[in-house]
Structure formats: C-alpha cells, structure tokens
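Forwarding these from the shared drive since the link keeps breaking.
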Amino acid sequence: MLEYLGEERTKQILSSFECPQNKDVEKFIKDKAIIFSKQGISRTHLVYWYSDSEQWEKSKELVGYYTIASKSLVFHKKSVSNTIWKKAVKYCDKKPEDKKCVFSAPLIGQLSKNFAGGNDSLITGQELLTLALNKIKSVQNEIGGKFTYLECEDKPKLIDFYERNGFTIFGKRTLERDETDINGEYLIQLFKYIK
C-alpha cells in the first residue's frame, strides 16, 4: 500500500481505524504500522469489504487488519502436552536437552476489527483470524514451518476465542515499559500447530 499510495495517503486511511475495546491495536495501526513496515520488523495487512450492488454504488470499507512478524518462539516442555512437545521438537533450532524448545515462528502481533462506522459488523473475528492464518500458511508453504503464535491480554473472552480456534497457552510475557495501553502486567502467549 505504501508503494502504491504513498505514506501520506496511507496514514490518512489508517487514521480512520477505531477500536475502543483495545487502544493498543488502534495506536499500533495509527502510529507504528508504517514505521515497522519500513524497518522490516513486521507487515500489516488491511482487510476490506467490497459492495457491488445495483442499489448501491461500489464501495469498500476497511473492516480490520492483522500484523505478522518473524520471531523466535520459546516454550518449555512442562507448558505443553506430550503430543505437542513431540511435534515441536522436530522444528527446534537447538537440541531440546534442557526441555526448552526454540524455533522460528510467525507472530500474529496485531489482529483487530475496525469499529468505525459499524464496520466491525462486516467481518467476524474468526474470519479475520482465518485470513491471518491463511497468509502464514502460504508463507510457510514456501519457506517451511508449522507453528505460529500470538499474545493477548489475560481476558477469558479473548483466551476462549483463541483456544476455540486451535491455539494453546504456553506461557506469559511480562509487559515492556512502553506497552502502556495494555491492561495488566503480562500477556498470555498462545501457539498453534498449522497443518
């Protein structure tokens, strides 16, 4: 998008994004998405809904976004089932003698619907997550890999959503000093084995 529309037009589009439930994801898309993209830290993917009806003129609405980054995933044997551990060990960068597994895995760093103008009703959270997972699967088909992970606030509704979509809790991460728009002192870490 930056290449085609330029930075100013892209900023204008991103500035219309609203997520009153999570100011962190709103702040990210408005203040960090372009910077992180330019630095090669992550890529943010905008999701649009298109209308093409005779009654309405053609329109497109920004309904959500997700951000993917290349990271290393670390988890301990005691934090996952034996079945998951056996799958994970195959992908470890180092020998898991210390019962810790480290390997490269895409991080779904941000995932949010756009609540501006009621656009959140045009897509479900599951549809948005599926788009992110399909993008990761496509990349992993080219470069390898079988896992992805994400981090979320310790809220039962969020954790239940991700667990219903095949994610498993494997740890907690203490918040950094600059993560001020997140409630609590830590984030729950969840991963998914992608078939």
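-- next protein --
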Amino acid sequence: MNILEGQILLFEIDEENEDFKEIKGKDESIHTKFDPFSIFIIVDPLEKEIWLWIGENASIRKKFIATQKAPSIRDRYGVDFKIVTVDEGNEPLGFKEIVGL
C-alpha cells in the first residue's frame, strides 16, 4: 500500500493561503468537522477516491480555490485517484458511510 496505509485523510480549505490544510485528530466522525461555509477534501485510499465536499454557504472564491487545488492533493496521494464533488445535502451513500453521516 502507499503512504496512506489505508487511513482516511481530511483537509479543509484555507482561503487566506489559497490552499488546503490537513485536519488532525480524527477521533470523532469526520462529518462533525464539516462547516456549511467551508470546503473539505476527504482522501479515501481504499476506494482511490478524493471527495470534494462543498458546504452550501461556501463562497465562490473558496469553490474556485478548491477546484484549482484538488488535483494537487490527488497527485500527492495517487494520480489514479478519482475526484468526486459532493454538495452539502446531496451526499451519496458511499460518502455518508465514509464520513459517518
């Protein structure tokens, strides 16, 4: 297995630095960290998916930054990973299982 060793990684958009920052301390369900004004990336190494979760009140600027930066996170962990965009309130079942919804 790669450097992820099967663990789910969580990143939140950092609008000031125009990048994503990793969120540590995943003792609780991932969804408890979600904020409707933000955007998160969830890296799932087992399914080779990168989920881009967009809060319903996220700004246009954050959405722009997210779409520009998501491929760099994908390239860091696996160029064959698929990027999937998820809007708050329209999360598919597979995503809900990963984040604990």
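The CA atoms of residues 41 and 52 lie 5 Å apart. The mean pLDDT is 86.

- D.
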